[in-house]
Specification:
InterPro entries: Ala_racemase/Decarboxylase_C, DAP_deCOOHase_LysA, De-COase2_C, De-COase2_CS, De-COase2_N, De-COase2_pyr-phos_BS, Orn/DAP/Arg_de-COase, PLP-binding_barrel. By secondary structure, the protein is α/β, with parallel strands linked by helices. It contains twelve helices and 21 strands. Strand 20 and strand 21 form a beta hairpin. The termini are far apart. The structure holds pyridoxal-5'-phosphate.
């Protein structure tokens, strides 16, 4: 059951016509489905049912507080990578004991904020960070609960820009150096070692890289046990892929089915950090066709959403289905769907077959819930778009469209001008 469906030739978000939302809140607009978000979170809970676990939603995929609140209300936690994301998670009501904090460059200020908030644990990515955390925790007279992020050197077989678990990447501690780092962590008086963490990449469409990485991690856990270092939290990271076009990624149940047998007899709480697989297919971006242009070699549909609103096609060459909000029976055209930004890289789709579009009509960019709004910018001084959440027949603005004055908020003209 998909919650973005055609009824009578019109695209609906749950029980609301997309057209109604656009006419109320304007274009472009992100629309999120409550039921889809809930179903995706539940799929993880059900898959790992019977094994202690926490589903820490990766806020970087979509940090709108309404979405984070929905997930928190249903047992979800948060994986944050900045003080700003921690602020959002707490504001949305995520219990601190369901928050984990990763990232290679946590500042002293961010570490203090997270310690004060009493989060579950930090996923630490270097020896330097470990020492800095020890120093700060000492000053605050608290103990910093940590896992070390281990880089297992596994190729996740995904796009190079979203792959993170190979030796050449900046993330984590190389697995060969892990033991030494754990020994250092144990020696530091204000550090409390409780976990182990890995995250090998995003948009993974096979379980084998998860399994291979986990096997390496478990071997390390056994070595640590021999040294008297015990692990309570096993954080397997995020990264399950979604269907954008014709990919067939494993659902959470299949992931659980492959990895739970490896964990038999171990007393871990499993932490997972899904982002894309929770929110990716729970959101669409609706945009209006402004102009049609027939170049000598190409046809262009120029729309009012640009790379500043959804950058994935521009930076990853990502594919998103593009569907008419109201179906038509016109001939099919092959066109580039492009935005208004002054960059050749500003496109939502290239050489795409779609039913002919007319100016003024709306198009839905599907699977836009993850790494959509969170990567949006004000480039070309374009106000960021509105976000709306739908639940059944109800819907509500969850972030209002920015205005021109928002664009210059905080700027000032110096006296010498
Ligand atoms: C990005 C990220 C995630 C989420 O990845 P998805 O592919 O969106 O599931 C989880 N953990 C860490 C540490 C990340 O950097």
């Amino acid at each position: 059951m998909h919650y973005f469906q055609y009824k009578g030739g019109e695209l609906y978000a749950e029980d609301v016509p997309v057209r109604e939302i656009v006419s109320r809140f304007g274009s472009p607009v992100y629309i999120y489905s409550y039921q889809t978000l809930l179903r995706h979170l539940k799929a993880y809970h059900e898959a790992f049912d019977g094994f202690p676990h926490i589903v820490c939603f990766a806020l970087k995929a979509n940090s709108n507080t309404a979405i984070v609140r929905l997930l928190a209300q249903n047992g979800g936690g948060a994986d944050v990578v900045s003080g700003g994301e921690l602020f959002r998670a707490l504001k949305a009501g995520v219990p601190p004991k369901r928050i984990v904090y990763a990232g290679v460059g946590k500042t002293g200020e961010e570490i203090r904020y997270a310690l004060k908030s009493r989060i579950l644990m930090f996923n630490v990515e270097s020896a330097d960070e470990l020492r800095e955390m020890d120093r700060i925790a000492g000053e605050m007279k608290v103990k910093a609960p940590i896992a070390l992020r281990i880089n297992p050197d596994i190729d996740p077989q995904t796009h190079p820009y979203i792959s993170t678990g190979l030796k050449k990447h900046k993330f984590g501690i190389p697995i060969e150096d892990a033991l030494e780092h754990y020994q250092l962590a144990r020696k530091l008086g204000n550090i409390s070692v409780i976990g182990i963490h890995k995250h090998i990449g995003s948009q993974l469409t096979k379980v084998s890289p998860f399994v291979d990485a986990l096997k390496r991690i478990l071997r390390l856990v056994d070595e640590l046990a021999e040294q008297g270092i015990s692990i309570n939290y096993l954080d397997i990271g995020g990264g399950l892929g979604i269907t954008y076009n014709d990919e067939t990624p494993p659902p959470p149940a299949q992931l659980a089915g492959s990895i739970l047998p490896l964990l038999e007899g171990r007393n871990f709480t499993i932490i997972m950090e899904p982002g894309r697989s929770i929110v990716g297919n729970a959101g669409i971006l609706v945009t209006k066709a402004l102009y049609l242009k027939k170049g000598e070699e190409k046809e262009f549909v120029i729309v009012d959403a640009g790379m500043n609103d959804l950058i994935r096609p521009s930076i990853y060459g990502a594919y998103h289905h593009i569907r008419p909000v109201v179906k038509n029976r016109r001939r099919t055209i092959v066109a580039d769907i492009v935005g208004p930004i002054c960059e050749s890289g500003d496109f939502l789709a290239k050489d795409r077959e779609i039913p002919a579009v007319r100016a003024g009509e709306y198009l839905a960019v599907m699977s836009a819930g993850a790494y959509g709004f969170t990567m949006a910018s004000n480039y070309n001084s374009r106000p960021r778009v509105a976000e709306v959440m739908v639940k059944g027949k109800e819907y509500s603005l969850v972030r209002k469209r920015e205005t021109y004055s928002d664009l210059v908020r905080g700027e000032s003209i110096p006296d010498f001008l």
